[in-house]
Fold these 2 entries.
Entry 1:
Amino acid sequence: MKNELAVAALERGTVIDHIPSSAVFKAVKILGLENTPHAVTIGCNLASAKLGNKGIIKVADMEFDDATINRIALIAPTAVINIIRDYHVVEKHPVALPDTIVGIVRCANPKCITNNEPMATKFDVVSREPNTVIRCRYCNHSVAGDQAKIL
């Protein structure tokens, strides 16, 4: 007997595939899906030839703009976006890390102004390969992308 995961096909919406399993729920938070009225399917620790195991997020009847979706590139650089219309993939592309990350990462420096004043955090990407490193624009504190504290 063959084991399968049966998940309903999407008529239209977005599928985010190849998310590292450890980053799936961070991606849900970054995308603001906790309170969405749309149907959301989340798979975690699924078998993957590329990653060993992976996560997947399917959101019915919703497409994200590039700026929104690329915010998850910090925690899921291997993620691939699939846009579904009439049950078919009409677009497929990897996420791309923007040069500046605004309002999604908390600065780890307790003396940083962003931790003491009501203002959005801003981090610049200073390295992408082999590992992502970001630096706070206000206090110059640097952190590895996979160690960044998501707001």
Entry 2:
Amino acid sequence: MTELATMDFHPQPQAGEARPWAFPAPERGTLDNGLTVLRCHRPGQQVVAVEVLLDAPLDAEPTGLDGVATIMARAFSEGTDKHSAEEFAAELERCGATLDAHADHPGVRLSLEVPASRLAKGLGLIADALRAPAFADSEVERLVRNRLDEIPHELANPSRRAAKELSKELFPASSRMSRPRQGTEETVAGIDSAAVRAFYEKHVRPATATAVVVGDLTGVDLDALLGDTLGSWTGSTAQPRPVPPVVADDTGRVVIVDRPGAVQTQLLIGRVGPDRHDRVWPAQVLGTYCLGGTLTSRLDRVLREEKGYTYGVRAFGQVLRSAPDGTGAAMLAISGSVDTPNTGPALEDLWTVLRTLAAEGLTDAERDVAVQNLVGVAPLKYETAAAVASTLADQVEQHLPDDYQAELYRQLAATGTVEATAAVVNAFPVDRLVTVLVGDAARIKAPVEALGIGEVAVVAAE
């Protein structure tokens, strides 16, 4: 009999000793031109992330020019006093960098990622973009045309259409939050290079801006680099703009955006609640995660696993805008899609989940899984410099202390089941939710009216 050959296996790797982890703390400083700088040394992160926050919020846009902040943000990478748009793009590519920019309610944010070995070049390019953007007529016209081309596609997207309608329903017409962040066809069509430059000159200056730099800064004289690049950006001094209060009407009601023949109904159910300054936020995050934060949440367990109505339903809280005095608001919402015939039954079951939650509460097991998922994965979530920089930038935008994220994880781990239950029940009261449905009104209106979750109105899809 032939003997079987034996194999020598390499010893199985063993887990090392667990090391304590905390969200990294930044160092804070100010350049001579007034620019606030947060820096965070992350050994081994050879791609450095830079976030620059500008105090140019959407509510500062001139009347009738909604979207000018977005066009300005996009135009920052379309040429400077030193480079044309094509040359600027080529310079970014030569140093292996990417530069993105977007506008939101708190302001405009530029995001740069660049290899640490080419940090000086990358900082020089973003400094040029901020210091002397070209805002050439032809480039702004192209960006406006591109934006106009995007709008019909967004309106055709059920989730985007639902978000637009929910904002319109929740906030008064006089509030910038009631209108699309990137403008409408009417407002964007009126934007030109003169309007973009006027907005830039009025709101973009280093004295009210913040730069966040995260990555491996070994051997880097960051003070000198910043002084030679972002430090050359000049502008007048000014106080940050006052933040208007967030006013919303969450009277329970239903709005159906009619899409005749739609085979699915897009659901977006929301209201406005506390933001991260409120002491209830950690418990609210935990409770909301138990409700709809993952595949094992209550909403998914009922609507997806038991009933098969949907591929997934999510509950979440998204900060809208915060003020320096600690006031602010967040959007608390539930989103998903269901097949058209089961729209009524799915909503009925969703409300049953909310009512059961109020009556019976969360379980300790649900709370423990949520803590494990939210806190336990944090070291993986923040492996990259970009993830750390983005979170630090969020804290700046929301006027939070530099140690907020680290403290949040500690609070999440210490939050009990009873606290999480109370927070999520208060976040999603069954009689104070605005429900937007994008679907076939002829088929879903009557079943939804029978639920008694609020007055039902139908609007055209546009």
